[in-house]
Amino acid sequence: MEIAIIGASGYTGGELMRLLLNHPSAEVAVATSRRLDGTPVASVHPHLRGLTDLVFRNTEAGDIDADFVFLAVPHTAAMKVAGTLVERGIKAVDLSADYRLPKDVYEKVYGMTHQAYFEAPYGLTELHRDEIRGAHFVANPGCFPTGATLAAAPLAEFAHTIIYDSKTGVSGAGNTPSETTHYPNVGDNFSAYKWTTHRHLAEMRQEIARLGSGARCYFTPHLLPVNRGILTTAHILLSEPMEQKEVEALYRRYYADEFFVRYQKPTLAAVRGTNFCDVAVESEGDRVVAVSVIDNLVKGASGQAIQNMNLMCGFAEDAGLRFAGMLP
Amino acid sequence: MEIAIIGASGYTGGELMRLLLNHPSAEVAVATSRRLDGTPVASVHPHLRGLTDLVFRNTEAGDIDADFVFLAVPHTAAMKVAGTLVERGIKAVDLSADYRLPKDVYEKVYGMTHQAYFEAPYGLTELHRDEIRGAHFVANPGCFPTGATLAAAPLAEFAHTIIYDSKTGVSGAGNTPSETTHYPNVGDNFSAYKWTTHRHLAEMRQEIARLGSGARCYFTPHLLPVNRGILTTAHILLSEPMEQKEVEALYRRYYADEFFVRYQKPTLAAVRGTNFCDVAVESEGDRVVAVSVIDNLVKGASGQAIQNMNLMCGFAEDAGLRFAGMLP
Amino acid sequence: MEIAIIGASGYTGGELMRLLLNHPSAEVAVATSRRLDGTPVASVHPHLRGLTDLVFRNTEAGDIDADFVFLAVPHTAAMKVAGTLVERGIKAVDLSADYRLPKDVYEKVYGMTHQAYFEAPYGLTELHRDEIRGAHFVANPGCFPTGATLAAAPLAEFAHTIIYDSKTGVSGAGNTPSETTHYPNVGDNFSAYKWTTHRHLAEMRQEIARLGSGARCYFTPHLLPVNRGILTTAHILLSEPMEQKEVEALYRRYYADEFFVRYQKPTLAAVRGTNFCDVAVESEGDRVVAVSVIDNLVKGASGQAIQNMNLMCGFAEDAGLRFAGMLP
Amino acid sequence: MEIAIIGASGYTGGELMRLLLNHPSAEVAVATSRRLDGTPVASVHPHLRGLTDLVFRNTEAGDIDADFVFLAVPHTAAMKVAGTLVERGIKAVDLSADYRLPKDVYEKVYGMTHQAYFEAPYGLTELHRDEIRGAHFVANPGCFPTGATLAAAPLAEFAHTIIYDSKTGVSGAGNTPSETTHYPNVGDNFSAYKWTTHRHLAEMRQEIARLGSGARCYFTPHLLPVNRGILTTAHILLSEPMEQKEVEALYRRYYADEFFVRYQKPTLAAVRGTNFCDVAVESEGDRVVAVSVIDNLVKGASGQAIQNMNLMCGFAEDAGLRFAGMLP
Description:
4 copies of one chain form a homotetramer. Helix content of chain A is 30%, strand content 23%. By secondary structure, chain A is an alpha/beta fold. The first copy, chain A, folds into 2 domains: 2-120, Rossmann fold; 144-296, Dihydrodipicolinate Reductase, domain 2 (2-Layer Sandwich), CATH 3.30.360. In chain A, helix 10 (268-271) links the parallel strand 10 and strand 11. The mean pLDDT of chain A is 98. The interface between A and C is large, with 41 and 42 residues.
């Protein structure tokens, strides 16, 4: 199967190419970039040198010749091409935020009119597998909502309040330099940002509600001096106290059949570079601490996108994604 | 005034010596270490080379000749010498946990019988200045409770629930190598530890109660890949919603006369190496996020100990502590 | 083919298991550890959870049932079992230093008598491929000599002096905590160690001599605040000046057929987790700067060991090793 | 004495203000910035909050009212105002490169015509103290040449070749974000840059020549994932072998009277934030490894500039600079 990546020069584009190198049934045939037309992919992604001969092309969505498309462009750019892909009958996963929320919520959160809205399944694979399997177009979740929701889902119905305190690596900010990503502002340092106003909160609330929970959700992200990974500490306040044994059993059961969700003490390094989400939980009665870790660029973006592609195309769900991260 | 530091080979001992180098009225005359008797201080603390000729001595508390003593030994070691100092009439600040809690709480939290209990003021300077001023022996607070309490104090009476989500640098673990501090386990990594069971929680609850608040307190610490600093994100759930303007004004007023507490967007680097605590606050109605940063070895230990000494001895409270950290 | 790893609890053991998970013709069947007999491998190597059910066993070399053995034990431990493997006709790669040098050099450098010496090919694959192909027992090179030699080899015959200035990540020190690896001693820090006395220099000199060069070799290693990777800056003083064009052409030609050696501007991150060695060169006339990067645990240890196994067993040289690192 | 800093918004400007806060005889009265006219200094340098009320002003050199000026602007900007200061009889230290080299060398190295050349002493204090003492205008050295020259100076006359292999923290690149300083390109990574072409080499060669040495000098810088500090490994090839004892004695003697140069095993952390340069040396006969560490923003820039100001104004050379760095 031939794959096109629209917007392949960024980190998520690079990850898609890295991961698909070892996919048994899919191969990247087209990597687009407006800015880098004609440039070898390996000049921008030096870790791919020797493994791919791809060259960036400035190809329009209407001219792309591929069986499957990943949209790895920013929000608002995705909505400009999504319709074309759907009309042409090309299956696609959109890694941007453009189709993750209902139209009205999107417009409020992103402060703009959505020009090309349609409904799409929300690609948090473990929670929406059936919808994704039959879909032609899937909205890949945000990195924070992926880790946060997997941390809290098993307890959602028992909670009255959930506070997500997340800590992310810097690659989440993309590959464009800024004050925020300037090394001397980040190295050996730590800070919170968008303390109460991060847009991903809308996705988190949506998922908790879909789980049938009325819990109030709050979210504060922080910037870690690490390259990759998100650790989310979900402080879950329960309506009725639960003991550790019970809570842990609940989590183990909930994820028993999930290859990519492992119940073990979470540490960023154990999932780095992989599609795994490690989760564990500790109860002190009325508060439960559930912690999850993911790689923001893999399970939080490109890996989950491939996991969704696998479902949409009838491949094994772990095709191309069954490998260990490196530790240390 | 001549100072003795009992247990001067660790990080807090090193910080005491670094900071006191520039104190106008105090000079370190004795630096004890059982293990390093006869070794020049600068061999262990190379940043002090050229600035001190001190040599570690294995001197017993009963033989120490000094006007003021800092106890920079671990808990249980402090209680073995505290009584001697008190009897000899030597003023002291104890950086260990031995006198921070009532006897019964201490024994429960630390799982042992306290052999030499007496009451001592809790040295969170900004909250207990008057008690400290008249004291002969002060129990210096834990690093986490210092930052956490300063973050939440102004809102304590309005809160029903406070969740402290803290992130600390590795120097908090001391200078003895362990699995926890092994670079490949920490570098480019992040994890939570003692999710619901850290001993410092007892101090946090004690302080919130002393502020007249009935708020429930929870605490989860995390280990950052940085050398120094603690950032605490206090998620404060209010009984009645408060607007941003109101909350911010409350904080600015609360700390208006405090030289060492600054109201500005907290980032570890801005307080690194100093006795400052930077605090700011953001409300989303019923939840307020209050964030504080301190240097765990300075405001969280040696700096606050000197601040307390200054009060106990009638010096200016900021003597020896009035300097900027370095940034970046 | 069934593989046994003797000493599988350390970093190189972990890497062998990680890499062999995706090998088409080899599977790890035995992972020994004296200390951890009965413990699941995933308890020590959490990144392998869900991917292996292996349990550490305390099995003696004489009792191991496998087609191929990796010795991932420290030097002096390897020599105690190497003979047994050879006698039993089991092919093996030794990742320790025990068979890398002639007996007399080894005894001088390592300050001891070699109890069980025999000759073995030196497993720097690109330079000794033919010898390795026919061997039953191969001595895998040290991490520093691998990167350093690949940096200098093309110019060895034209040089009169080669100074290797190497910078390594902390995982090179193994997984046992020490002062050297204590985070606060390494994070945001940098230093040189064994400025003129590192044992790997003997291997470097041996390889330069085998290339027919009479160049004098020097070596100074440094410790980086990074987890993995070695960058070696080889300062090569030439007998006759050479222009940039000429030198670069020489390097490109020398490595033209080598899959694992890529000519591109070296940066640790581009080879992290992989068996690649990136090399480039810049001439200023009589001095040439040649820089190489490798992952110390992969091309510098476990990856090259598998590359050698592939040759020894008639597999494709890149079997199990053909994947990209992650960047960032 | 009143100080003006021209170009006070960058890292060296921030350091000048931090350090001068504790100077007994000098006070910053003017901090200029074209871009930030009217902005409080503490908004840009949050570590200075509470310690200074200064506000950036867009003041021209001709209008500055001060007793002493630091030029903390980039090269080419400094030459536009240097003449004005000299004419007005205001003593100054220029932290840029504009007056470090003879006109012809400068024009060749920086590829431009020098519009306002005059001769100025080179402010490597330890080597040119007498010239500096009497000067009205001093050219502060580059960060790399400072550390490199102090490492090699004692052996310069005995060397035939000196290779400086330097590793710098990221703050050396200034506070403007770029690809080079983007965290994901630097964190957990390492690389060389300007392998043979860094402009600072001209200063290094000049200083070695001034020491009466005919040694050939080479220089390759590298970028460390640390905020501050430069470690230079000087590989010194001697005309005649020298023993360790002899070399070490030479260094200790050479720097015996220098407060800011300490003979001890160099590690970045021990000098971080301070004006110290730690140096040590190890001989293996015909090659000597001399290693130095400095803080690039202090001894490599603002600290040495103040050291020079102290000499130029008749203050104690260590005024305002006599304090320890923090470790860890």
